[in-house]
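Side project, low priority. Logging it here so it doesn't get lost.
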Amino acid sequence: MLKVQRSAEADRVVLAVSGRLGAGNVHLLLSALDAESRNPPPLVLALGEVRLVDRLGVAFLARCEAEGVVLQDCPPFIRLWIDRITEDNVLEESEMKGFVAEIEGLTWKN
C-alpha cells in the first residue's frame, strides 16, 4: 500500500510518501506529481516512511531526482540503489519511457 500526503510550506511543496512503492502503485505518485506540476519548484518527496521498493519504483525516483525533485529523508537502501542506477547508467531513456508507458499512460514532467 502506498500513501502520498501533500503539505505546503512557505517555499516548497512536500509530498510525504509512505508504504511500498513499485510497479503496482507508482502511478499514484505520478498522479500526485502531475497535480503539482503547475506549482513552481522546489518539489520535495519525503521518503522516510517508504519501506519497500521494486526496480520500477527506484527507477522512477531516480528519474524524479534527475528532473529536479528533491528526495528528502531517502532511506539508505533506496539511495544506494538510485546511486547505482545513476552511476552505472543502467537505466536507459528508452527503458524509462517503457516504465512510464506501463504506468497507465500517465505523463509527468517537472
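Brief comment: Confidence is low (pLDDT under 50) at residues 103-110.
Revisit when time allows.
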